[in-house]
Amino acid sequence: MNKKIIGRKQEISKLQGLYKSGKPEFVAVFGRRRVGKTFLVRELLEKKFAFDLAGLAKGSMKEQLMNFHFTLKRAADNKFSVPKSWLEAFEQLISVLQKSGKKRKVIFIDEISWLDTHKSGFLTALEHFWNAWACSKRDIMLIVCGSATSWIVNNLINNHGGLYNRITATIELFPFNLHETELFLKSKNIHWNRYQIAEIYMILGGIPFYLEKLKQGKSVSQNIDNMFFYKNASLKKEFQNLFVSLFDHAENYEKIVEFLSSNRKGLTRKEILEKAKMKSGNKITTILNNLKYSGFIRAYSQPTKKTEIIYQLLDSFTLFYYSFLHKNNFRDEKFWTNTINTSQHNTWAGLSFETICLLHVKEIKKKLEILGVQSSEYAWRSNNSEQNVQIDLLLDRADNIINLCEIKYSKLSYTITKDYEEKLREKIEVFKQETSSRKTIHLLMLSTFGVKQNKYSGIVQNEIHLDDLFAETD
Q: Stretch 394-406: mean pLDDT, rounded?
C-alpha cells in the first residue's frame, strides 16, 4: 500500500481490484471538494494512465477542446488537429488508445462536470465512446472524477438514457474521521492531544486539503489565525470559492445553508421555504438534493412524522464559516486566539461537538458493541412548543433499544446536577409519551472527558468519551 495515503483502505482495495478485474470498467469517483479524490487516483494509478484529462473551471467549449488537444498531444505525439466537437475528440482518443502498448489502459477524466458546458454535446459523446467502443474492450478502465457530486449522480449514476446502468463501480470519498485525522497530523509531525484535534476537526472537518495547511510547531489557535484571519490568510475566501465551484447560482445554495447554520437541529422543507421566501417546486428540490449529494447536509425523518423530512447542516467548515467568518471585518489578525474561552467560542464548540458525534455514529456503535445491529439515527424535537424538548441524537436499534443521547462538550468531567437530572428524566418521559415507543430507553452520555460520579449520575446507562470517537472501525 502507498505509504503517502492515509486511511482509505476500502477505497484503495476497491480501486486495485477494479484495475485487476480483466474486464472493461467505468468507475465514478466523487465526493466533497478538497476531499482528496484526485490525489487517491493519482497515487494509486498515475503510472498506469494512458490518458489524463482535467476539465477547466468555467472554461468554454472551445477552451475545453483545446485543452483536450494539448493533453492528447502530450500523451501521444500525434498530429491531430484541434477537435471541433466532443465526438471528434473521443474518436481521436480511440485512435491513440488503439496504438497504446499498455496492457491495461487507464483513462482518467478529472472534474468531468466542467467539460459538460452548455450545448456542448459532451455527455452524448461520452456515451458514444463507451457504448460503441470502450465497453467491449477488456483492457479499458475509464475513471471519471468530480467535486460536483450532483452532476455525477444525476448524469452518470442515475442516467436514464444511453448511459443507463453503464457505471460498473462507484467510489464515494468522505472526509477523514477523527482517527484518520490523527494519523494525518502525525504524518506531518504534528502531535496534539485529542481535545485539540477535536477542535481542529470542528473547524476543518477532516478535509485533507485544509489539514495539509497546518504547520508543526504552532498551536491550534496560531494555525487558525494564520489560515483564516491574517491579511493574506490562505483560506479566508475558501467558502465563496467552494460554492461557486460546485453549483450554478451559488447564491441560492448559500442562502439555504445560512438558514440551516442558524438552526443546528435542522429545518423542514416548509420551514426552509418560509425563511428563504421561496415557492415550493423543482428549484428547492434540486438545491436540497444537490447539497445532500455533495455532503453538506443530511436528511432524516422522526418516528412520529415519518413523511416529514428534516434537513440538517453537517459540514463543519461551513458551520465554522457562518459562526466566525461570514460577518467578520478581519481587523483582528489574532481573532481566534482572542476568542478562546469567550461565550461565543464555547457556544460554538458545544454545538460543533454535537456535529462531530453525528459524524461518528459508527465509532459510537463500536463502543456500544452494536456494530452488527441495524439502527436508524436522528435528532428529535417535541411537537409541543411549550415543552421545547429536543434530543441531540437517537440510536433507534433493531434489538428493541433506543439510545437517547445527550452530548456535552467540556474541558473537565461533566457534572450532572439535580436540576439537569430532572430535565433528563423529563426528556425521556416526553419522548415516550409522544412516540408511544415500546422499546427500552437507555440514556447515553457523549462527552469529552466522561461524567463525574455523584448521586445524580446513575441516570446514565452508557458513556462515550472523546477518545472513543477516535477508534478505528475499518
A: 95
